[in-house]
Amino acid sequence: MKKILVIQNNSGDLHDIDLLLPKEEFEIYYSQNLKDGLEIAIRYLPNLIVFYLDKEGNGIKILTKISNDERTNLIPLIVVSMKYAVEEQRKVMELGVDDYIPVELVGSSLVNAINKRIEKLSKLKAAINNRLNSFEEESLKPKRDDHILVKIGNKLKLIKFTDIVCVTALKEYSKLTTKDNCKIVVRKSLKNWLAVLPSNSFLQIHRATIINLEYVDKIVRANERTYTVFLKHITESFDFSHRYANIMRHTFPS
Q1: pTM for this model (two decimals)
Q2: What's the CA gap between 35 and 116, in Å, rounded?
Q3: Cα Rg of the chain (Å, integer)
Q4: C-alpha distance from residue 32 to each of 80, 126, 155, 157 (Å)
Q5: CATH topology (fold) of 160-251
Q6: pLDDT tens digits for 155-199?
Q7: Is 3.40.50.300 the CATH number for 2-140?
Q8: Which end of the chain is more exposed for a tag (fewer CB within 10 A), N or C?
C-alpha cells in the first residue's frame, strides 16, 4: 500500500482524492493544516505528497521547507493550485516540485501524475541498488517518543506531549486536553499512557487522571489528606486521590 499525504489548510480543499485512486493500492491521509502537514511529512515520510496552494498562495513557505529538508526532498511532490499562474508555476517548479496541476484538472491528470511518480520512484530505488528501498529504513526512522499521531476519520493530527495539559480516563478510551483547550478522545488506556509519557513531566494524581507538571498553576490543600490542582489553560480542577497524595508530597515537598 502506498501512503499519500494531502497537505492543505482547509478540510474542503481537496476532500475526494481518495475517491479517485484504488483503495487496494493507496492509503490517502489529509493533514489538519499546513503546519501539521509539514511535521507529519518529516516524521512519517509518506510515499508521495499532494500539496494544495490556495488563492493567496500562502503555502509557498511550507512548500519550500518540504522541498529543502533533506528528510523530505526525495519524496515525490505534486502541487495542486487554486489559481493557475505561470509565475507561480515557475516558482514551485524551481523548488523541485515534480508536477503543478490547476485544481480544475484534478481528476485524471492528478491520477496519472501520481501513478507516474510512484512508478519512477520504484525504478529509481532499483537503479541505485535498493539504497532507498524504503522510506522507513532504520537510519531514517522518525522519532516517535515525543508525540502521538491521532487519526480523526481519514485526517491526521500530530499532538506533541509538551502540548498535553492532562489525560483523563474514559473506560478503555482516554481524553486528551491540550494547551489550546482542544479535547480529543483516543483509544488508549491510562496504563498505556503511563508507559509512553515522560515520567519527569507527567504525574498520575488519580486512577483516572494524569497531569502535565509543566502546566500546574497552583495546588491547594483540599483537606488533611489530599489536594486539588489547578492547571493552566483550562478551567477544570482535579483532586488528588488519597493514594496519590503521598506522591504529590514527595514531588512538591514545600
Answers
A1: 0.64
A2: 27
A3: 23
A4: 17, 34, 6, 6
A5: OB fold (Dihydrolipoamide Acetyltransferase, E2P) (2.40.50)
A6: 888 999 999 999 999 888 899 999 998 999 988 899 999 999 998
A7: no
A8: C
